[in-house]
Predict the structure of Non-homologous end joining protein Ku.
Amino acid sequence: MHTVWKGSISFGLVNIPVKLHAATEDKDIKLRQLHKKCNNPIKYQKTCPHCDEEVKPEDIIMAYEYAPEKYVVIEGEELDRIKKDQEAKAVDIINFVKLEEIDPIYFDRSYYLSPGDGGGKAYALLRKSLTDSGKIGLAKIMIRSKEKMAVIRPYSNTLIVETLHFPDEVRSLQEVPNVPHEVQLSEKELKTATLLIDQLTEEFEPEKYTDDYRTALMNLIEDKMKDEAGVEVKGRDNVVDLMKALEESIKRTKGAKPPVKQTQRRKKA
């Protein structure tokens, strides 16, 4: 399992060397965009509208737009320095809270936490302490150049890190349009709705749920492959033939004697 982050987590005087691994993966089916005329994949180029030319990676700088068309340029060395300063810090558990106190709107991504070299006992201690107390640890962590709030909690026989959004990253309720207020509902309507909820209530079993859209799309792709309904890229036959010709020429010339120069032939004559 790929390591996303490596460092240490501390609570009190206990320091635990740990590694972070992504707990989820994107199962979306990636579709390519092709040119309808020749079926070649579309390429995207970074261009400057002022210079009307393609921009190479080494010609790109980073900046923050603090006003319309006004920027503060941030040098790469400055970004690297801030990143190193933050990543060098051990992840300190700030305090402990109950999981139910955190609204799901704050949750972002999940990561498995494994102990580093020599950290097995301290890892087990934290896992057992959290399980017995019914609490989770609240901390800050630096992942991929971005500081995140995070909770550390037991998950089966493992510890898991759940990154959280900061409060200012959660949009205000006032921005939600057309929310009804003080709507009169009859007692019969409420009882009927409650009865329906009760009838559809059961224990959560994640294995029962599947991505129906992804399954249908994959079935469609497989059917098209069986029916040989695929398309081929146009305009590349000459390139392939040329490569074959070059490779064949190289094979034929291997071990062959170098050609005799014309001057050498004249001398022998």
Residues 259-269 have pLDDT under 50 and may be disordered. The chain is about 30% helix and 25% strand. The longest strand covers residues 146-155.
